[in-house]
Amino acid sequence: MILFIYLINQANSYERLKGIPNDDVPYRPINVQVNTLEKDYSTKDLIAIADQVASDFKLEGVRVHNYFRLVKFASLSRQLFNRVDFNYEDKGYRVVTVAGTVIKITKANDVYTVKCRKVYVNSNVIDSSYIAGAYEYTSDFLGYLSQGSHMQFMTKPWSLLPASSIAFIYNELYKRIEGPLNWYKTNI
What we know:
Blueprint: H1 2-18, E1 27-43, H2 46-56, H3 61-71, E2 76-90, E3 93-108, E4 111-127, H4 128-136, H5 141-150, H6 163-187
Antiparallel strand pairs: 1-4, 2-3, 3-4
Helix pairs in contact: 2-3
């Protein structure tokens, strides 16, 4: 019993000194860039331009083919395609892309008019605890000089992101494109 109390006391003192590692590390998006892409197509065969639309707007080709196949008998159709990519890496950072593409197809006189509008946001992902650690060394001259070179390696490309961080990053980035995307959904 005394040994158990001793071990609990040691664990509590270690927790106060070092802190317990937590899966909810506050990953944050930085260098956020919102962009748009707009293209119009006109054709007599929808299936013929499905691959081009998929590659121009970085969509899954199978989903675009299925949508175009289902729509070819309708006179008006509108569809939203969402995409989230966490896989890229740029200069030591993970790059997250959240995108929404609205495709509107109208048919008049056997000619399809395809309007595609895409809003996407690119962002780097960093671990806020590393930044806090980097700023602690600014009073030290050597740390100040080397701070810029170490800022490039804030997240390890092989470290897993916890689900709460993924949800937080997605929500933060989706807020940036929500307004233009809603406008495209109603006005094209």
